[in-house]
Design a protein that fits this description.
By secondary structure, the chain is an alpha+beta fold. It is extended and about 70 Å long.
Length: 162
């Protein structure tokens, strides 16, 4: 890793991700190519945000993660702003503890958790019925490993004959 990248990563990880001025927090939905990411703003609108050149090939943005966006001044077009900071889970939890997490995102997270809890009982019932029919034949076999015969009865028979 080059010295520049090493210091850039350390500065990025140690920097305070609290939004300042007109910066907003948005949730990343999907990459669109050319370092553009589709993001959802707190009001529910979907827009595009650009990853700056200094972070390209250094920081990767995952779907569902949060980012601090710096909006472009004026009406630029389809691209709404630039990703100023990617929020990792520890950043999000620290912001929640300090009380700096936006109420809009907290309400959306609670609604999503409630919806997931409604779907969870049906999923556990399906898992229980599937676990009753466990067979060793259904286990994953790695094609990159050589197949070893597990029949050890041949070895014990040959040692008895001697």
């Amino acid at each position: 890793m080059s010295r520049r990248n090493k210091h850039l990563i350390q500065a990025f990880l140690n920097e305070d991700p609290t939004p300042t001025g007109n910066q907003v927090i948005a949730r990343v939905h999907s990459p669109r190519g050319n370092n553009l990411h589709e993001v959802e703003l707190a009001d529910g609108s979907m827009t595009l945000a650009e990853l700056p050149a200094r972070f390209r090939n250094v920081i990767w943005v995952k779907r569902g993660s949060y980012a601090v966006l710096q909006p472009y001044p004026g009406d630029v077009g389809k691209v709404w702003g630039e990703i100023a900071h990617v929020l990792f889970p520890d950043h999000v939890s620290a912001m929640k503890k300090r009380g700096e997490w936006p109420a809009e995102w907290a309400a959306k997270e609670q609604a999503e958790e409630a919806e997931a809890a409604k779907d969870a009982p049906a999923a556990t019932a399906n898992e229980e019925s599937e676990s009753d029919s466990d067979d060793d034949d259904e286990l994953f076999h790695n094609p990159n490993r050589g197949h070893r015969a597990e029949d050890s009865s041949d070895d014990s028979d040959s040692s008895d004959d001697e």
